[in-house]
UniProtKB/TrEMBL annotation:
GO biological process entries: polysaccharide biosynthetic process
Protein name in the entry: UDP-4-amino-4, 6-dideoxy-N-acetyl-beta-L-altrosamine transaminase
Gene source species: Candidatus Yonathbacteria bacterium RIFCSPLOWO2_01_FULL_43_27
Keyword Methyltransferase assigned: no
Annotated catalytic residues: K180
A Pfam family per the record: DegT_DnrJ_EryC1
Upper lineage: Bacteria, Candidatus Yonathiibacteriota
Similarity comment text for this entry: Belongs to the DegT/DnrJ/EryC1 family.
């Protein structure tokens, strides 16, 4: 079976992890700092704070943005559940705006229509690794005094305009789950240029406890003294993971270019199939190609599960990204209804993610293309 995605970990990654295991620090040592610096430098942001997962990083970003019970946050339904779940975790209300069918990304016009007096934050999601319409969303955020957060779990290594993803939003989240651009096993990060957010992210990551003498509420205390200022968690990444992350960051551009080559081959060799819609490339942004989301033509969407099964039968791993978040029973039980975001529902009903990852061989790509061409004839 060709998997739909797989991590790339090689000898020098393994060597770096072994070095840490033999060192005095296995958590929160020098490798965590080095990893954070390499992410910040790569993205062109001032600060990077690493976390135990992308989900933990989102939780921290929502805390740092100052979200409280009852605050509304506008986000995409075409995402992994964690984007919305962590909003619920801080007591905020996810408000789903519809997507553009061509990209799977938030449509800025639908976002603006959902703004109310209670709206505090917009969370854009870079679906499949293609940056969301950052300039339009930033303009809306500025006009209505909202914080703009980018869920770039798919998009480390992508760029928008002349800058990398991570250099644009108030806070940008990355995930280092094995199927994302780089991996640390589990892990995540927030990048930001804002010092106040940076300090809140650090506090939240470590139990809400500070040792910073300038920040202590009770002054004149001994050297060992520390204070807890807010409710926080243990969301720290280990030095073992960070060593893997530092080593993987060195290969990030190679990973992204390999994914790009595969995507361009698929685009070239699948574009004329009458029953499928192929993701496009854009001149103002580049994708990190986390996914290659194939879609059935709208009039053929009832054949999606047939195609899915045929691909699996031919030994090709496939996935559906995603069920619109509000269609999960948890959200339905909270009053979200079918029909809320028609484009996201149509996209979800017609989508199949086909294999794309740096180690996917030419031979396997050829097989995948051949099988899809054969399925196209049967529809
Ligand atoms: C993977 C992912 C997350 C969560 O990241 P984890 O590191 O798995 O916790 C959040 N949002 C999106 C869009 C993702 O794909």
């Amino acid at each position: 079976m060709i998997p739909y995605s797989r991590q790339w970990v090689d000898k020098d990654d393994i060597q770096e992890v072994i070095k840490v295991l033999k060192s005095p620090f296995i958590t929160q040592g020098p490798k965590v700092k080095e990893f954070e610096e390499s992410i910040a430098q790569y993205c062109g942001s001032t600060y990077a704070v690493s976390f135990s997962s992308g989900t933990a990083a989102l939780h921290a970003a929502y805390y740092a943005a100052g979200l409280h019970a009852g605050d509304e946050v506008i986000t995409s339904p075409l995402t992994f559940a964690a984007t919305a779940n962590m909003l619920v975790a801080v007591g905020a209300v996810p408000v789903f705006a519809d997507i553009e069918i061509a990209t799977g990304n938030l449509d800025p016009r639908t976002v603006e229509k959902k703004i109310t007096k209670r709206t505090k934050v917009i969370v854009g999601v870079d679906y499949a690794g293609l940056p969301v319409d950052i300039s339009a969303l930033k303009k809306i955020a500025k006009k209505h005094k909202l914080v703009f957060i980018e869920d770039a779990a798919h998009a480390l290594g992508a760029s928008y305009g002349k800058k990398k993803v991570g250099a644009h939003a108030d806070m940008t989240m990355f995930s280092f789950h094995p199927l994302k651009s780089i991996t640390t096993g589990e892990g995540g990060a927030i990048v930001t240029n804002n010092k106040e957010y940076y300090e809140k992210l650090l506090l939240f990551r470590s139990h809400g406890i500070t040792k910073d003498t300038k920040k202590l509420i009770n002054k004149k205390n001994p050297a060992w003294y520390h204070e807890m200022h807010d409710l926080g968690y243990n969301y720290r990444i280990t030095d073992i993971q960070a060593a893997l992350g530092v080593s993987q960051m060195k290969k990030l551009d190679f990973f992204v270019s390999r994914r790009g080559e595969i995507a361009h081959r698929y685009q070239k060799e699948l574009e004329n199939l009458q029953n499928f819609v192929i993701p496009k490339t854009f001149s103002d942004r580049t994708s990190s190609w986390h996914l290659f989301p194939l879609r059935l033509a709208p009039e053929k969407k009832h054949l999606r599960d047939f195609c899915f099964n045929e691909l699996q039968k031919a030994g090709i791993g496939v996935q559906v990204h995603y069920i619109p978040v509000y269609r999960h029973p948890y959200y339905e039980a909270r009053g979200y209804k079918k029909g809320l975001c028609p484009n996201a529902e149509l996209f979800s009903e017609s989508e199949i993610s086909i294999p794309i990852f740096p180690a996917l061989s030419q031979k396997d790509q050829t097989k995948i293309i051949k099988v899809i061409r054969e399925i196209n004839k049967q529809l």
